[in-house]
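**User:** My hope is that you can spare some time for a protein that puzzles me. As I understand it, each token names a local backbone shape. I would be glad if you read both lines and explained how they fit together. The protein I mean follows directly.
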Amino acid sequence: MSNYLFAPPPVTALPILGSPQHFPVNRLFFVGRNYAAHAAEMGFTVDKARETPFYFTKSASALTPSGSTLPYPPGTANFHYEVELVVALHRPGFRVAPEQAHELIYGYAVGLDMTRRDLQQAARELGRPWDLGKDVEHGAVCSELLPLPGQVLAPAAIGLQVNGQTRQSARTNQLIWSIPELIADLSRFYHLQPGDLIYTGTPEGVGPVQPGDQLRGWVEGVGELSVAIGPVA
């Protein structure tokens, strides 16, 4: 007999390429404005010499596997895609030096940061948190993980198509803050844990989707994901 008032949620986990095991997910961290061209299309200029990365989070329950149909969420008329390289951690770390950051890496995946853009922009203009715009149910899509323990991914193409038309296309070496720099910086504020995922930022070309749209995202050498946009929830 359970001591819980109701059944706890199941463990959130991702499939691992070539393995029967699954990767249990702890937290979801997202990096904002980490490609210069995307920052520009959002109306910002990033000066790495004077700025540090910034982050937001999503609930682990928002994680959704590739191949899903995402319901068009309530409260928005401007639902956007953002394709991202995802880094999965399998070791703990706190105040990690950039030179040791690679030791925390388990592997990589392709992700989508789905965003209620109108709500995000309204919150930004009022100086309010982005939660309603970013922490969207089903709004953190992720492919299966490619295990590359201890390895920093080589520069790779990243992109996204909507209904077969390419909307985003870049390379991961265009990241303003690199993977080791992000891990090291995050570890100044959090005791990073096995199961943490870091969505490293999106290139330019973000835009809206509508019910019925088909999305395909990829990172060269890592994998692909695909999702459909369903009816309004």
Remarks:
- The helical segments are 36-41, 117-125, 131-134, 179-186.
